[in-house]
Amino acid sequence: MNLGKNDSADNLPCSFVIFGATGNLASNKLLPALYHLEAAGRLAESLTIIAFARRDWTTENWREHMRETLDGKIKGSLDTPVFERFIARFSYHKGDLNDVASYRALAERLPPESACSGAVFYLAIKPAEFGAVIQNLEAVGLNKPRGLHRVVIEKPFGEDLESAQMLNRLLHQYFDEEQVYRIDHFLGKETVQNLLVFRFANTLIEPLWNRNFIDHVQITVAESIGIEDRADYYDRAGALRDMLQNHLMQLLTVVAMEPPAALEADALQDEKVKVLRSIRPIAKRAVHAHALRAQYTHGKIDGKPVVGYQQEENVEPNSITETFVAAKFYIDNWRWRGVPFFLRTGKRMPHQTSMIAIRFRHPPQQLFRETPLETIDPNWILLSIQPDESMRMEIHVKQPGLDMDTRLMQMNASFLKTDEQTLDAYETLLLDVIEGDRSLFLRFDEIEWAWRVVDPILNHWAVEREYIPTYAAGNWGPADANRLFDSDDQVWRNEL
Ligand code: BG6
After folding, report:
1. Which residue ranges does the record assign to the Glucose-6-phosphate dehydrogenase NAD-binding domain (predicted)?
2. Max mean pLDDT range (362-371, 418-427, 471-480)
3. Which of 57, 129, 155, 488 has its Cβ near the most Cβ atoms within 10 Å?
């Protein structure tokens, strides 16, 4: 993003190693993003990419796999010269994540230090495997020279506060902080970055952005997909660890933070941490009032039948893993005290929608009480993140005519002009890793505080193992999600 580049920006890496190259994340996100960077001419000629995976494949098999994977996932159709250029960078490395010999062989593939500087190690693998990879990289000396090699860690970083702290200690034993890129790809989404511009480049907005004018904030990330082939990971994680602790919490910090002293990694992270530290801790006895979980059963998406979570391949038959979570948080600081932040995310909801909805307070004076306008809907600002990046403001205007009647006017602004295409978050973030820009990556204290916020909920659920409420696939989660609201006029906003 060209914010706060660190010194390593001068040391462009010339190797990019993807651990878990045949997995879901690599296929759906990393390879298409790298392809787009190739097409845009943003990858240095010297960059080689090593696909590290367990399958007994030749480079030819990999090539075929790439063609199939990219087809349908990239924007437009595969461009042959771009694809040829791209595939020529790759080599396939058959290896076992737990076997140090695989890393020794990997080290031999990397160019000697004098020939080229660093390597990026991207851990596109299950969190349970992070530790083994970090230790094995160290065992063959691939953590050194420090400052040169970079390691990218996906979320969730740990599965609770304690395990996150352990993982961080392990990382710091072998890598310097400057080498570590903890990724949360939501921070690479255009709308999220745009939120900074929207809030801090417009004098119109900032004076209203506080408890005096805002009634509550809703953050929804709804997905229509199920868990695809990720049961192995998802059944252990659940929606709270997979989405809320990281992606939704990051959105909350960007909505709520104070203006940073500068647009630099540390200054931004300082402000985000302040928000997380100000979130009112949820007492054990208050968990029920603040959070709820549910799991999808069979239903219909886009008119087509889909199975329930427990019938998905590799899911434990009586699993109580949540695929939906909703929670309410209060930020006890001067700006936000008393304003609830409602966060909600789920799989197998009617369609993919991610948005931040800001609801304003009712006007203090009921000036229109004696007119047909007795109950006036409040103003909203809606920031859509997916599928389209746009902003909508809802305000009242008088309807032309003899009566005092209003209509709600929706001011819509798409962030994109017709000839512009949106960037995928991974394109931005992978380029940032290569260029050594850490401003959109997480500092450990952000992760630590986010776990402190959600740990009480996890602990409470961990002892309630008997039962989980359900919702039929194709719905907006359980009706019970309404119980989080503080007043009758608060309702979930499902559509723009
Ligand atoms: C990932 C989660 O981090 O984000 C997935 O593990 C989820 O479960 C995905 O589907 C959503 O990201 P995006 O960018 O596709 O909306």
Report:
1. 17-194
2. 471-480
3. 155
* Radius of gyration over every alpha carbon of the chain, rounded to an integer in angstroms: 24
pLDDT tens-digit series, residues 4-53: 444 444 568 889 999 999 999 999 999 999 999 999 999 999 999 999 99
Atom 9 in ligand 1: which residue has the minimum CA distance? Answer: 243
The residue count of the chain comes to: 496
What domains can be seen in the chain, in order of their start residue?
9-154 (3.40.50.720), 187-421+443-484 (3.30.360.10)
Question: What's the CA gap between 253 and 412, in Å, rounded?
Answer: 25
Output phi, psi for 40, to 5 deg: -85, 0
Q: How far is the CA of 411 from the centre of ligand 1 (A)?
A: 29
* DSSP bridge pairs for 392: 382, 412
| Measured CA angle at 483 (ends 478, 484), to 5 deg | 105
Q: What does the pLDDT look like over 334-385, one tens digit per residue?
A: 999 999 999 999 999 999 999 999 999 988 777 776 666 556 788 999 999 8
Rounded distance from Cα 60 to ligand 1 centre (Å): 30
Residue 232's CB is within 10 A of a number of other CB atoms, namely 15
Confidence of residue 193 (pLDDT cuts 50, 70, 90): confident
